[in-house]
Amino acid sequence: xxxxxxxxxxxxxxxxxxxxxxxxxxxxxxxxxxxxxxxxxxxxxxxxxxxxxxxxxxxxxxxxxxxxxxxxxxxxxxxxxxxxxxxxxxxxxxxxxxxxxxxxxxxxxxxxxxxxxxxxxxxxxxxxxxxxxxxxxxxxxxxxxxxxxxxxx
Length: 153
Hints:
Radius of gyration: 18 Å
Shape: globular
Protein name: Galactose mutarotase
Strand order of the largest sheet: 1-2-3-4-7
Organism: Solanum tuberosum (Potato)
Largest sheet: 5 strands, antiparallel
């Protein structure tokens, strides 16, 4: 029988100052490529980033809505062979959606957390890689101060 535990975390309040203008700020793929691009990290039109590592694994991520449209891992077998598995879904629907505050065993006495965030709230904050085995993309939701990290290895 598994025991459930509830952790209460107190985070300091942050004073967020947000500059505003008449038009929304958008990043061209060229500026994202200049700022974050490196070996294994490629930005393309439409606000997508493709992360690849040396073993051939890759993931395509839509930055505006944190939606994975293609995930291609290498699956290794014990006889030194491997099988490549590719999952690709259209940009308009499907994909692997981001889940925040996921509840594996919901408690009917607790409120269900909101797990969707408007796509215009996501901001790319960091991209890192070692160009060989691991890639990481950090995206941030300013409204709720949540940070999500996608990693492929």
